[in-house]
Design brief:
Strand order of the largest sheet: 9-8-7-10-11-15-12
Distance between the termini: 50 Å
Mean pLDDT: 88
Number of helices: 8
Number of domains: 2
CATH class of the largest domain: Alpha Beta
Number of strands: 15
CATH superfamily of the largest domain: Vaccinia Virus protein VP39
Radius of gyration: 23 Å
Structural class: alpha/beta
Strand content: 25-35%
Shape: globular
CATH topology of the largest domain: Rossmann fold
Helix content: 10-25%
């Protein structure tokens, strides 16, 4: 049976989904409009158990999800939505023990997700030009006990990065096309690159830069998310949907072969990339049967 411990971040959730996030500290108490909780009374309790405030209001004591942690951070800028950050982790192949860089710390939402994923043996280096942003992000990471996994660096990234051979890099700035060259120098060969942009014209400019600076396997996508009302008798979508939040762009820096001799004349000026229209709707659909085959089966 898992028990709560001092220093852990827990969540108190009522049946109407009202919740409070708290870092358990001996001798402290949580004051809410539904009553007071003494931290000492919560420390050592089984996770998942029902607890009551001094006014008798019932809450469940549970471990917060990463989604919960991100939603509760103090924001000084727009954060990356959980629906996007989870997909970004997969596309960048972020794993425990890795070195991951990001530029554009913001409020630290994506920083939190990266720090949690690299684990205690990995490390995240986060660059931003605004000191106030990084101070807020650092406080957010300290609150949930992940600050030791992150090094914050205050710098104009046009000057480049201190790290080399990083496993992955996430670039969250309005003009990423200006930095694809210096990002490439920080990434290991074939490393994972990702970025997020709100508009199609920005994406087009970034695609040109990625081709120019030797990135291949480029993809552009967006993630749409729809929730459903959990009432068995009338299951249907909720009234609001988290639709477009940003375009996600991914690529891998590679070294193109330099062809010498008579064969060079037959080579195009720029090595072909996969920036042209793909043959299928998505990379994983390449081996799927087409509609005619489906109909015939």
């Amino acid at each position: 049976m898992a028990l709560t411990r001092a220093g852990a971040v827990v969540q108190l959730v009522a049946r109407d989904n009202k919740y409070f996030l708290v870092k358990l500290t001996s001798g402290q108490r949580l004051e809410t409009h539904r009553g007071i909780f003494q931290h000492d009374a919560l420390i050592g309790r089984p996770l998942g158990s029902e607890v009551f405030s001094h006014l008798g209001h019932a809450f469940y004591l549970i471990e917060p999800s990463t989604d919960d942690l991100i939603r509760e951070i103090k924001r000084s800028s727009q954060i990356i939505y959980p629906k996007d950050s989870g997909f970004i982790l997969m596309k960048l192949s972020v794993q425990p023990g890795q070195t991951v860089l990001e530029a554009g710390t913001g409020s630290g939402g994506m920083t939190t997700v990266l720090a949690q994923m690299v684990g205690p043996t990995g490390h995240v280096y986060s660059y931003d030009i605004r000191e106030d942003m990084q101070k807020n992000a650092r406080r957010n990471l300290e609150r949930i006990g992940l600050a030791e996994r992150v090094t914050f660096k205050l710098r104009d990234i046009a000057q480049g990065f201190d790290e080399v051979d990083a496993d992955a890099f996430f670039l969250d700035v309005p003009n990423p096309w200006d930095y694809t060259g210096v990002v490439r120098q920080a990434l290991k060969g074939g490393g994972f690159f990702g970025s997020i942009l709100p508009t199609t014209n920005q994406v087009s400019t970034l695609l040109v830069a990625l081709q120019r600076d030797g990135y291949e396997f480029v993809e552009v996508c967006e993630v749409l998310l729809r929730y459903y009302k959990t009432v068995p008798e009338r299951l249907r979508p909720t009234d609001r949907m988290v639709a477009h939040t940003g375009f996600l762009i991914f690529g891998r820096p590679v070294t193109r072969a330099q062809v010498a001799g008579p064969e060079a004349a037959a080579q195009p000026a720029t090595a072909p990339t996969n920036l042209a229209e793909p043959d299928s709707a998505a990379p994983w659909d390449a081996g799927a049967p087409d509609a005619a085959e489906d109909a015939a089966s």
